[in-house]
Amino acid sequence: MDFVMNFTPGIVVTTEMIYESNIFKLIARKMAKMHKIELTEEQKKNEPMIISKTLEYLETIPERFSDDKKDFKVRQLLPSKQSLLTEFLFLQSVLKSLHSPIVFCHNDLNMVNIIYTADIEK
């Protein structure tokens, strides 16, 4: 499955707009449609992006900070890079053993992720 971002004309939904009957009904219909998207057999074979992206993120964690005070504080407050990686790989193995698909869960209803265009209601 590909990740696509592009410019979408319209306005970001506001707190006031969310209470307008025509807008919240439209959002509900569009969200229901999005969550009914069926994956192709080929897409079902792909590893979920969350796995590779999390591993990429974990790789960016430095082993050590050049500022000794910062390095000490980080080591006191946070697990090591290796501990985080070990924990993530364990979580990954548990999730794989469940044989459950990964579904949409990416702040769908965060208002800044909802763009309203008046002509979309037609």
TrEMBL record:
PANTHER family tied to this protein: CHOLINE/ETHANOALAMINE KINASE (PTHR22603), ETHANOLAMINE KINASE (PTHR22603:SF66)
InterPro entries in UniProt: Kinase-like_dom_sf
GO cellular component: cytoplasm
Cited SUPFAM superfamilies: Protein kinase-like (PK-like) (SSF56112)
Protein name: ethanolamine kinase
Pathway it works in: Phospholipid metabolism; phosphatidylethanolamine biosynthesis; phosphatidylethanolamine from ethanolamine: step 1/3
Root EC class: transferase
The EC number(s) this enzyme carries: 2.7.1.82
One Pfam family it belongs to: Choline_kinase
